[in-house]
Amino acid sequence: MKVKIQTMLGDIVVRLYDETPIHRDNFVKLVKDGYYDGTLFHRVIKDFMIQGGDPDSKGAPAGKMLGVGGPDYTLEAEIKDGLFHKRGALAAARQGDEVNPERRSSGSQFYIVWGQVYNEGQLRQFSKQLKMQKIQSAFNQLAAQHRDEIMQMRRERNRVGLQELQDKLAAEAEAQVTGNGLTDEQLKIYSTIGGTPHLDGQYTVFGEVEEGLDVVEMIQQTATARGDRPVDDIEMRMILVD
């Protein structure tokens, strides 16, 4: 399934991944409904990404803060190891972990990655961080499975039992996460094509640019004002393409 994003700077064709059917089907529905037509790329950060999909951006006056609009629902996360934030990746925006621990996606807001090319030392650090994030996520899932046991020991003030269980779960979580944080494919792409590796494992990537990466480059270079909103509005329309 492909979607053409039409802008005054040119067209961007994105291919939606079948591996993320919830996001794919939702995006297709919104495109068919004309939801995105007249919305803006309301948040643009050079060497990082371009973001759109806020319905409040339609006809928004200059200076209006944007980025919180959307439908009255969020989407279940579909974060997959093989889908990552390479240059041209299409991903779902979301609220932060502190209010959204399940990392549910915005019902409509999305971003397209531009990013940077990284050297070996930088990628080693990203890989280490990503592995630690995976271990922490595995630990949290294990802890949730033992919630009743943990609560009981807390009520009993059984500090020894809590520490023993924590050590056991930490060892199990570490054993679950094998290899490095970044795969060989990620290392190759981030060191040659570029992207935003620090977002991997945090947001749902559900497609990629097949045509019009030069348009993404132009948009991410545009001048911006307060709130990272482009000084000159960049409006979009979307259509499904065969």
From TrEMBL:
PPIases accelerate the folding of proteins. It catalyzes the cis-trans isomerization of proline imidic peptide bonds in oligopeptides. SUPFAM superfamilies: Cyclophilin-like (SSF50891). It comes from the Bacteria. This is Peptidyl-prolyl cis-trans isomerase. PANTHER family: PEPTIDYL-PROLYL CIS-TRANS ISOMERASE-RELATED, PEPTIDYLPROLYL ISOMERASE DOMAIN AND WD REPEAT-CONTAINING PROTEIN 1. It catalyses: [protein]-peptidylproline (omega=180) = [protein]-peptidylproline (omega=0). Belongs to the cyclophilin-type PPIase family. Gene3D superfamilies: Cyclophilin-like (2.40.100.10). Keywords: Isomerase, Rotamase. CDD domains: cyclophilin. The keyword Lipoprotein does not apply. Its EC number is 5.2.1.8. One of its GO terms (biological process) is protein folding. GO terms for molecular function: peptidyl-prolyl cis-trans isomerase activity. Residues 9-236 form the PPIase cyclophilin-type domain.
